[in-house]
Amino acid sequence: MASKIFMGDMPELMESILNNLNNEIYSLYSCALVNRHCCKMSIPILWQDPFSFKQNSLFISTYFSSLGEDEKLALKECGINVKFSKKLFDYARFLKVLDLLLIKPKVMQWINFQHVHPEPSIQSIYRVVNLLIKLFIESGATLHKLIYFPNDEINPETFYVLEQNELFFSQLRDFSLEMELSFLSIEHAIKLLRILEKNAKKISALKFVKFDPKYELQLFDSFKCLIKSQEQLRKFSLIIGKEFHARYQGMISVLECQKNSLQELMIENCGYSAEFEKLNNCKILETLRIWHCDTKLLKILNCEISTLEIVNFELNASTIIQILKKSGLLLQRLKLGSLCKMLEEESLLLESLKRFCPNIKYLNIMNIGFSTQFLELIYNLQDLQFLTFACVDNIPEEELKIQVIQFAKILPLTLQYLDLKSFWLNSYMELLLNNCNSPLKKLLIYQLDNEKDSKALIEFCIRIKTLNYVGLDRYWIFNDNNRKKVESYVKLIPYERIVVNC
């Protein structure tokens, strides 16, 4: 079977395998070296999103190897006199992801590598940026994702090329407009929104970030027109500055036109508004993410949610319970983050979760007491697969040890991922591992800094035989001898590399 794949007899299967490696740059490079067929399939995937890779900017020369004579003359006028070798592929046409915030620093770095003297002006840098963007457009590339920070970098000629090229945005699936700073060009943003309204009808994820109150109503109107023009919008994110708070200019109301397709809503810094009642007409809305918003919004929503994420400086259980009751058995993923204080009416919340939402598979809960009631909730969640929590240890030492043992024993046999954000639990790691029978695949802890806990982890690996990764918040704090012993049983990696979010 493997030989048939690499001989090219099963191209569809091979392409599917390689697409699953789209973030594994070194694996894709290895595949590209196998044979000509694998090279032709791997290279386009490698070059879908090169600006996001943590690599130097020399790859930009590969793009410029396909420039025409006029464009090469433009580079020389910027002080860049480089000979580009002819390449096997037209790499520019493989681009699928374009984050305009990343292009300028990469171009500046590339120019520095060319040892240009005198140092190029900002206008020269902008000119090179525009040459690069025009190259993508004219090569026949079709974007799938665009993150746009409007400013004066993109010149009128580039916008004209965009307007004339219907192909470039025809397959766009994910678009973010991020108006975070006051110097950004609203005229350019409106111009791009109108181009997208005309040429991009298949966007499934839209994000609107707006922090500066000086931006005009015209910007909102253009974005609303883009929403209306979409065939099937599934995900919408609205992040606004606190100074707006309740002024959405109809941005929420217009989502009603996507009521048959909208599945996920993410809002941040939003206050209470009657506009949100329109969301009750979005019958298939299943994911709701609310960050630093007025939680009264939850009281006017009558949706059955399967994924609920609420993060605020303070959380009151009474404002959350209504939507928990409504979602009930449908709720499978829940994140509750109280950033400053313990959850208010904690007992009421835990009882409601236990009573109404037994089918939760992912639970992330912050600033809650390590209580008997919390343990009862975990015991009741017999389908739980992912657990992240930060508990407060407000009970005596001996009782705490008993509860840690109880907690370890009642962890369900479905649990695969455990993230212990409570630093104090690190002191009880040996107790927890020695009494845990869950077939964990990933364990995330603060640090592993003594021989006793290392031994307990090794014994857990031998006994359970499922643990693949241990993520350490303080990855660098580790005795070399203990590290070698532990790594013969399980892979140790930095915490952020395996963290799973709601």
UniProtKB/TrEMBL annotation:
The protein, known as: F-box domain-containing protein
Native species: Gigaspora rosea
